[in-house]
Specification:
heterotrimer; A mainly alpha; B alpha/beta; C alpha+beta; A: mainly alpha; C: two-stranded antiparallel sheet; two-stranded antiparallel ribbon
Chain lengths: 189, 412, 65
């Protein structure tokens, strides 16, 4: 594996990018549930943006994991990146990152197979996205070098992501309590 | 309060008849039933199919679907890993209909015989009987009848939920599956894939009774009733204002007016229940009880419900009440029905009150048909359209702000 | 053999993606629910399949008749 800090910088960069992409995906996901045709962007655009941003974040995730494992500065084995237990380096925070990866994997796989599952089953699993994001945030705060060191270019976007997801969650909850009047009784969006 | 315009009856009068209702004065017990009809023979599926085809037996649930087609489909699809299921639909969610309850009260074993002989022929492993929600006595009598029986595939009893659409076939399958008794989208017919994906023969209680009669008496005896082209009999429920529902068994080809009370003469009647069609008196007077015949007249027999309110009830006002009731009875699962039926009801009220609203009514009628998991909106539209097709005089009178019927009755 | 779009009505919440993706044969009624106005021709087939997979409620099916 290469010496020098390149992989480490790449890891940190993809880490931050990943958090931003995951946040964007969550926000777009919430926006997809409430939209109706005729208001602003077409509904299918928001939905397909959500899917594409999510896929992009998977790409960032792969690079983030590869650079973490590949970098010889810290000892992270590939199997420690893929599941939450048994890491030697920062086991709690790394474990949370691995947990986030696992949850993302389940969400992505079920979404790829969406037409083969019942809608209810897919929906329940998809809620794990929130947990995946939360684990990613905790991982960032616990293990993220740049956030730990208070670098503004890392702290500000991270704070922005938290705000965005809180707003999105609030929006989602408000829609759940008060669905559109045309939606058949007893259903939530 | 969403009460039906024709209330669920606490009491009904069942008249003895030529075949299904023969000898009912002897009581509904199994002993009396065997005395009347003899023992139930074992029939293989091919013989059963021949019997059914030979008399052209149709379903009595309202759609008049040829039973042979359903039976053959189930027989063909049945296999060792796909055991067929037999379902007796006695839910009778339509308050104006009482014929199925009449069978439960007087001839429950005829219904059960039909189900059992078919289940044996199909090698079905279970029979499900769905009892009505609003008719305690009929449900109890059927339970007693089930308890009297032994041998044959196990009989499972269920009770429908108290709503109009409870008897819809997919709703019945949902109930038996342990889910709410509401319609769902049916991608394949029940006969192909019904309960748990198994071939399911679901039919109305009277259909099973007719089948039981056929198995007990044979085709030749069965063909002695009715006409050559349409053998057999049908159960009719005749309701009217301030009268107990009367259930009659009539032969196909008989005159409909023979079972109507004198008070019905000269006035329109609603044929086929709340999803049925209005008929002006001349049509009623000339009608013969017949599935194809009445379809040609534009008043399909449906499940044999005849509501003859007499000359003092305004058919438009009554229809408005029915449609308001039906709108409230939407399962609420499908957007076009949930939204469209209340709008249809409001539009009909406007027309009944003499306002201009015919275009909106037509528009809504067009929007709700064939856009739902079940035919509830379709039946409602059939009722509405029949008012305009059969009773143009009444419609014109209302458009001019008046009514052909006595003004006092408009308050109902 | 024609292909048709069929709606699973209890699942449909009138979200309207089908109309956005297939305006040629899907209109929306006054409450936002789809009205399928024609069969799925060969030219429309790809868009129809997208509409089916894009429906957030999986309320659309492409059936052969």
């Amino acid at each position: 594996m290469s010496e020098g800090p390149l992989l480490w910088y790449l890891n940190r960069a993809t880490g931050l990018t990943l958090l931003v992409l995951l946040t964007a995906s969550v926000v777009l996901g919430v926006l997809s549930t409430g939209s109706r045709p005729g208001r602003g962007l077409p509904v299918f655009v928001t939905q397909h943006l959500h899917r594409n941003v999510a896929l992009l974040s998977v790409v960032a995730l792969v690079v983030h994991v590869l650079t973490a494992v590949g970098d010889s500065f810290v000892d992270i084995r590939w199997w420690q990146a893929l599941q939450p237990f048994g890491a030697s380096y920062e086991p709690l925070w790394l474990g949370l990152g691995a947990l986030s990866l696992d949850l993302i994997a389940v969400v992505v796989v079920t979404s790829a197979l969406r037409t083969r599952l019942s809608h209810r089953a897919w929906r329940s699993v998809h809620q794990a996205s929130w947990a995946a994001w939360a684990c990613a945030l905790a991982h960032t705060l616990g293990i993220g070098t740049d956030v730990e060191n208070g670098r503004i270019w890392a702290v500000a976007p991270t704070a922005g992501c938290v705000l965005a997801v809180c707003l999105a969650a609030g929006l989602r909850l408000s829609r759940w309590q008060d669905p559109s009047p045309h939606v058949p009784a007893g259903r939530s969006t | 309060m969403n009460t039906p315009p024709v209330p669920y009856p606490d009491e009904i009068r069942v008249h003895p008849g030529p075949a299904l209702l023969a000898g009912i004065e002897r009581g509904p017990s199994l002993t009396a039933h065997r005395l009347q009809y003899g023992d139930l023979p074992r029939v293989d599926v091919d013989t059963l199919l021949d019997l059914v085809t030979g008399v052209g037996l149709r379903g009595r649930g309202g759609a008049a679907f040829p039973l042979a087609t359903k039976l053959e489909t189930v027989a063909r699809r049945a296999g060792r890993s796909r055991r067929p299921v037999v379902v007796v639909n006695l839910s009778e969610g339509e308050s104006a209909s009482s014929k199925d309850s009449a069978l439960a009260l007087t001839r429950p074993h005829l219904v059960l015989d039909g189900a059992v002989v078919t289940a044996r022929a199909l090698r079905a492993t279970e029979i499900h009987v769905v009892l009505p929600a609003e008719r305690a006595l009929a449900a109890r009598r059927m339970r007693e009848a089930v308890a009297e029986r032994s041998g044959g595939p196990p009989l499972h009893l269920h009770t429908a939920e108290p709503r109009f659409v409870a008897g819809q076939s997919s709703a019945v399958i949902e109930l038996i599956s342990g889910r709410p008794n509401l319609p769902v989208t049916s991608w394949r017919p029940d006969a192909v894939s019904g309960l748990d994906g198994r071939p399911t023969l679901l039919s109305n209680a009277e259909t099973w009774a007719q089948l039981g009669l056929l198995a007990l008496q044979g085709g030749a005896q069965y063909r002695r009733r009715g006409t050559a082209g349409e053998p057999g009999t049908a159960l009719l429920t005749v309701t009217g204002t301030h009268r107990l529902p009367q259930v009659y068994e009539v032969e196909y080809g008989a005159r409909l007016r023979d079972v109507l009370p004198d008070a019905a003469a000269g006035a329109p009647a609603l044929i086929g229940g709340f999803h049925g069609s209005w008929a002006a008196w001349p049509t009623v007077a000339s009608a013969r009880v017949s599935v194809p015949g009445m379809r040609l007249l534009g008043v399909p027999l449906g499940a044999g419900v005849v509501h003859a309110p007499g000359a003092s009830i305004c058919p438009l006002a009554f229809t408005s009440r029915i449609v308001a009731y039906l709108a409230g009875q939407s399962a609420g699962r499908c957007g076009p029905c949930l939204n469209g039926l209340p709008a249809l009801s409001a539009a009909l009220d406007r027309v009944t009150d003499g306002h201009d609203g015919r275009d909106r009514l037509d528009e809504l009628a067009h929007l709700v048909v064939r856009r739902g998991a079940c035919a509830h909106p379709d039946g409602t539209v059939r009722l509405v359209r029949s008012v305009f097709a059969a009773l143009p005089g009444e419609v014109s009178a209302h458009a001019a702000g008046g009514c052909l019927r006595t003004p006092e009755e408009l308050a109902s | 053999m024609t292909r048709r779009l069929r709606v699973d009505w209890p699942a449909c919440h009138g979200r309207g993606l089908c109309h956005e993706l297939l305006p040629e044969i899907v209109e929306l009624d006054e409450w936002g629910y789809p009205i399928v106005t024609g069969p799925v021709t060969d030219a429309l087939r790809a868009d129809a399949e997208t509409a089916v997979s894009s429906c957030p409620r999986l309320a659309l099916r492409l059936v052969k008749e």
